[in-house]
Amino acid sequence: KKGDKEYSEVKFETYYDEVLFKGKSAKELDVSKFEDPALFTSANFGTGKKYTFKKDFKPSKVLFEKKEVGKPNNAKYLDVVVFVGSDSKKVVRLDYFYTGDSRLKETYFELKDDKWVQMSQADANKALTAMDSAWPSDYKPVVDKFSPLAVFASVLIVFSSVLYFL
């Protein structure tokens, strides 16, 4: 805020570091510890469970038993969720800000041939619908876009920053 009626733009990257994860250290997140209540909150997800990272630190890299999930290059992780089906199948969702093109992204990963590989949205929907029939089979992430979401996020960030500094 510059004055009573003037505001300055805040980049999402700055908001991420100075508001969302202010004062929190960066370290690797091992999502194989999804049952640890110090790291994750759990909720029922159909016949399985959904574990959401508590954000007590800034994830610099996401691993599952020392196997990398996604690529940390240019990624600032906003949310990490592990879905576990009744058959023990696991799907990891990463929500992150990609600094390469300044977009918010939502991606899903599964373990195949001893590696975590990115799933197509159709495959992720199929796997998640098998765990919880309430999951829409035609779900599309709303964050991997530019225009309206970027504008909305920018307005929200500026508004949040204004409230934060008042």
Question: If you had to describe this structure to a student in words, what would you say it looks like?
Answer:
With 166 residues, the chain is of the alpha+beta class. It has one domain (12-165). 23% of the residues lie in helices and 36% in strands. The protein is built from three helices and nine strands, in the order αβββββββββαα. It is globular. 23% of the residues are buried. Keywords: Membrane, Merozoite, Transmembrane, Transmembrane helix. This is Merozoite-piroplasm surface antigen Tams 1. The chain crosses the membrane at residues 146-165.
Radius of gyration: 17 Å
Could you give the order of strands across the largest sheet?
2-3-6-7-8-9
Major beta-sheet overview: 6 strands, antiparallel
**How many distinct folded domains?**
1
Q: What is the N-to-C succession of helices and strands?
A: HEEEEEEEEEHH
Low-confidence stretches: none
Quote the beta fraction: 35-45%
Number-wise, the strands total: 9
- Indicate the overall shape: globular
Give the helix level as a range of percent: 10-25%
Mean pLDDT: 85
Short description, anyone?
By secondary structure, this protein is α+β, with helices and mostly antiparallel strands. It is built from 3 helices and 9 strands, in the order H-E-E-E-E-E-E-E-E-E-H-H. It holds the Pfam family EMA.
